[in-house]
Amino acid sequence: NAMIDDLAGIQTPNISQLRDTYRAVVDRLTALNKLLVPISTRYNLPNRKLPLSSLDRALNAAMALADNMHVIGKQAASSPRDALGALDSSRAIDPVNNPLWDVIARMLDGLYELLQSYQVYIPAADGTDVESWLAAARADLTPFIERLFDEILVGMVDGLKIAGSAWTEYAAAVVQGNRIGAITALVTAMDAVGTVSPTLSGWLNQLRTVVDGASYVERNAIHGGLGRALADGWEAFDRGRLPDAERLGQQAMEIAKNEAERFAAKRLFTLSGTTRDWIERSGAINAARTQTVFKIVEGLYTPEEITIRDHFAAQMPSRETYLKAMGKGLIELYSRSSTPALRLVFFTDILLGVLEAHDANLDDALFWREVSVRILGESGARHPATRVLDEFVDRRREINRAATLLNQVNGIHAIETLDSTRRQIEENTQARLLAAAAHSLREFESMLRDWSDGEFRAAGMKIDTILTLVGETEQSADITLTQYRAWLVELQASAAELHNLSRQMKQIIERRPPEPSDSVRDAHRRQAQMTAILLGDQYAGQLRQWHETYESFLAAYTDTTVRRSGRLARFNELFRAMFIDRHPAYPLYRHWYDLTESAPEFPAPPTSDPTPRMTESEVAEETYPGFVGSRYIEREESAPRTGRKLPLLALFAAIAVLLAVIVLIVFIVTGAGDDTSGLPPTTDNANLTTPADSAALLTTAEATNPEGVIPRTTAEETARVPLSPNDLITPTLVTRTTVPTETDTPPTGIPTESATPTAAPPTETPTPTITPTPTNTSTPTLTLTPTVPPEGLRGQQDLLALPARLATLPWSEEDFALDTTGTFWRFGTGTQSPEEQLYVTFSPQVLDLFYGNAAPTRIRTAEATLSLITYDPVLLQSDDVYFGLMLQSPDDPALTAGLYVQVANATAVNLYQRVGDESTFIVQRSVSAVVARIRLERDPSNGAVTIFFNDSQIGQPIPFIGADEAVQPVLFIQDGGVIVSVTNWRVMLR
Predict the structure, then answer these.
(1) Can you tell me the distance from the alpha carbon of 250 to that of 272, in angstroms, rounded to the nearest whole number?
(2) CATH code that applies to domain 796-989
(3) What is the pTM of this model?
């Protein structure tokens, strides 16, 4: 009775609790019945005394009420009629608890009223109230789940929860342009609310159909303003209205409320703005800027989009297959999963095409152009980015054609077509970009004229100008003129060599040596030969004529078989040649003419007597070897004369006097009294027989060592002192020390009968001086300064060639030396050292000495190839197996920037950026062999150093000293226990 009394006071009935209570009543009545039935049977008690029938009726009523509660709780939503019938049956069975049944009735009425309203719910047109309605409906039905245990009702509530989550997914997918994701979310929501709200399910189904057929799914976003901004923005991008697309992207970013919406708006804004900026600022002509834009666009992809793109590309065996399969395998997949992805792929392919065009791969550029056009369909070919690519490809085609023409100017064969090549460059559609190239060809033609005229210095300076113009062309047109530049460098070196020969020849000519110098002949021959080899016979004509003219004058001067008058006639004939006064040896020819004119008509006869003597019997035609004809032919007469002995003696006496006068003149002119005349010491006077012989000896000695020609080494020259690197800072002038020796003074005045000349006292040791005035003083000069162009050497320079040119190496050969095979340089030692690192470098003074024009300030690139040979395994455990390359400031050695290569194991290396004494880890690379191709590039604008390892950039550029400040390349390695081979070490000089 207490339990029944408690039921009557329930205000918020729980059907499950009521069912359990009534079942408990049934259980107790059943127990009581089992207790009373035996008593009634034992004592045979009538119903009046023991009313078992009433107990049975109460038990049946309790069981009926329990069943009714179960029906109400189980079928309240699924079968409202049964639930209401069970409630009415309960009222009839237990009228005492009518208030409880009224409460249950009101609860069921509320439930049915809510379900009825849900059945006819229609959301707003833009669907903005769907999310709130789903949440509210779920909140309204949740209390009924707590009081009822109807599975249908539980399914409705769970469906509302699922629909709410699906609607949120739809909202995120639709703003990303994810058609598949949006449709999937709508189908899930539609199925989830189909029971509780058929009208909402139908509305979702209709929305799914719209989304599936929409061109831009963003237009169906829940937030209409955001959706319209995104859809209109992507449409503007496709149509090439990039400023409008960028503006709409900015508008979408302002409307966005959550992270997904902001990400979608950012992709539209960034892609549109980047594309517009790249097009308007002519980014296509700048490969570095295009590469930067490419990285920005790559960052807008999601990981899933990159996976789809790369997976598709990896499956394509050829370009043709790629183009055929991209419609289904790439375009359709992206169009159903992401609106931005298609536009990202479009612009990425445009950038790839531009980069391929920069690399002169025009076929690849056209392939990417075709891919990008197919991605956007009809709008692809008209898009501004596509037009930029088309224009750039056409431009690169013309520039590449010009580059091919210029690179064909690489040898003697190109000189004949030089004018045609220049006209084609000037008529090129990109003539403005190639203006420097056309100018270089005009300078080349001018250089050829200077070269053919023997103006080698002017030709060399023009070649310097041409190289500068070539560099400007390479930078402005983004081309590489390697072959053209290589030939120019070869011509530049040859011009420098020929200029040096010409300068040395002029120095000899200015001294007017009486005896011909082989150096002059060799210089003429070398100039003609090299010009014929390098430029062809067309430009070697004048130089060859100079050589032939010199040979003719030399033959006339040295021909001893012709008397003086005959040689003078030959000289006069040669001097009648046109433009003979322009010959570089013209002063020498005049000097030879003067010497010949002052020489005796006939050569002196050979004799052992210092004083000329001659008798009639000794006058014979065959007494002078090699003479043809008669030297006395003008004296032949028809009748012989008598008394010839006295005139002959007088004649010879006159000849002796004339010879003595000539000797005196030569002696005075050539400075016989100067102890520094360069005469070799002579102690044997037996061969000095005549004044003519003495004069010949004097002039020969003066001509043996003319100034400006490198002397042959004699025992009296001091040994060459080895030079250290510090000595190379200021090249030291090394001169020959003249040893005082006893010399014989040639006879002056009229020779006497004495055959024994008086020995002169030893002369004072002269002090060599350097003077620009040509003299007869023999001052051999050895200098360490190599011949370089005025502007210094440019381009690639091999540092490994310098040690062979140094007298003393600035390092120990145990640390760095050429291998015995001569194929590589061995760097490092096998023994441990107290020093942590071993360095190898060339001082700025050495670099400037050999490359000229402040070479350390002109270093733009340093590169080296180092291969690990062996190492101590113990060092590997402590991470001490390392080596690298860096640039160092000579003014502050603590300022360095380079790459530190640490060997992790046999198949991996750790790469660090080294700045000063600090090393920052960047990346680990797998390698099949530890071979490091290191390149350090200096930014010409700010001096920052960009590091490349095996042609891949490592990290970001390192801030360094100014671009015009001096640097020196430095190799470094763990000092002891690590040995590498160096096969390449170069610098690039601007």
Answers:
(1) 10
(2) 2.60.120.200
(3) 0.50
